[in-house]
# Entry
Amino acid sequence: AASHTGSLTGSDAVLDAAFKRAGVLRVEDIADVFEMADILSKQPLAKGRRMAILTNAGGPGVLACDALSKNGGVLAELEEQTIQKLNKVLPAAWSHGNPIDILGDATATTYEKSLEIIAKDKNCDGYLVVLTPKAMTAPTD
# Structure
């Protein structure tokens, strides 16, 4: 309940600010997922079909790619400068392409920096951010 009282501070506030700047709609629980799906179904489509997928897990990234393809979208080809900037903030083992797998131990700061970088990529028309909670992640940070 502490997260609903606004008592969380620090990196979660930073992540929220980054999400807001990038136009990310954040959900907190499964009820929010369905509510957000309803809201999004009534919104204009992305300006194009080219999407970037940012994830901390390969499996959900692949599932998101499959869903994107099935629904007429395509993975955006990241600009070289985007890849170079991501190389500076991500571990060497990141996927080096789209979907952008930033690895299982990614922090809120890693998500923030990565999203800020890909939000400037002119080849991307939209973004899907997937966070898969794991023992080594702190999804409420």
About this structure: Residues 36 and 48 are 20 Å apart (CA to CA).
